[in-house]
Description:
The protein is an alpha+beta fold and 346 residues long. It is 17% helix and 34% strand. It is built from 8 helices and 21 strands. The protein has helices at residues 23-27, 62-68, 70-74, 76-81, 107-114, 144-153, 217-223, 334-345, and strands at 13-20, 36-42, 88-95, 101-103, 121-128, 133-138, 160-164, 170-173, 179-181, 185-192, 198-201, 233-234, 243-248, 253-259, 263-266, 274-280, 283-287, 293-296, 301-304, 310-315, 320-326. The strands form 5 sheets. It has a 7-stranded antiparallel beta sheet with strand order 1-2-3-10-5-8-12, with no helix packed on it. The chain starts with 12 loop residues before the first strand and ends with a helix. 43% of the residues are buried.
Amino acid sequence: MNRIYPILFQPNLHTVVWGGDRLCPYKGLPSRQEPIGESWEVSAVPSSTNIISNGPLAGKDLISAISEDPVKILGKSVAEKYDNKLPLLVKFIDAKRDLSIQVHPNDEMAQRVHGKSGKSEMWYIIDAEPGSFLYAGFKTTISEYEYKKRIADGTITDVLARHEVKSGDVFYLPAGRVHAICSGILLAEVQQSSDLTYRIFDYNRPGLDGKPRELHTELAAQALDFHVESEYRTIYKEDGNRANLVIDSPYFSVRVTDMTSTFHRNLTKYDSFIISMCIKGDCKIVVRSTGDEIILHEGNSCLIPAAIADYDVVPLTGASKILDAFIDNKNRSLPHRITRFLHLSN
């Protein structure tokens, strides 16, 4: 195998009070007794970076591997823009219980207060039990005074927009939008590479240590966008055997491909790494320039370096569904910039 190749990772599972028991079987791992809520699939966050499991880089952490050859792995444009750092973090999330009501700061606030990047993110619903729902955005305009009052009396969810969900639903959550995943939902998350979360309300429940989890009422008040949108769900086409555009935000682009035959992906024009999350069905990824190949199992993810972003995806189980996340460094047309601005401001 060449020095630059599709990179796989060791499991990076996180135990949380609201977690469940679906991620291990979904990823083909032995079951665990503790509640697993998150699988950090591709992470270069220093507090929980992934360890590479295949090829010449096996055993290295992702941050170290990128530092050895940032241009070939990240892409020249990405390496320059993000100071040789991976700008995305992707996860699988299993919510057996409701997550806290929360919000993330934007880049300006996160840098000013914490010296970090902000966090905008998106959710792709993989599976949802009947009647499952999530919160995204406000359904009615409220003031900061009312926000604090409703936190104190436990009625904050009364003013949140509640959305029943099913497999394939997508939500884009720009920094500042209040949100919460609720019970019965398994999803894929793509986000800026940041671990900043302001917890607004946590149903007065104890954490794994038996103590109430910390709330960040004042910081959240500064971060929140109280503007009410007419629609919070992302509408997109999902045609078979094509890479369907799902999200094109200032921070990441996401495509979903549901394929029944070999599918060619040439993303070299974007000058970006690609993170591929296998949502359904095992597949094989074959690099055209080198012949290197990997098996990507359902519930697992890989990082494809920018230098080899011309490859085939071969379904191995009849059909496969792949979610790709990358940085779009190509399209700088005026309509595209306007669309990105609207994603940023909404």
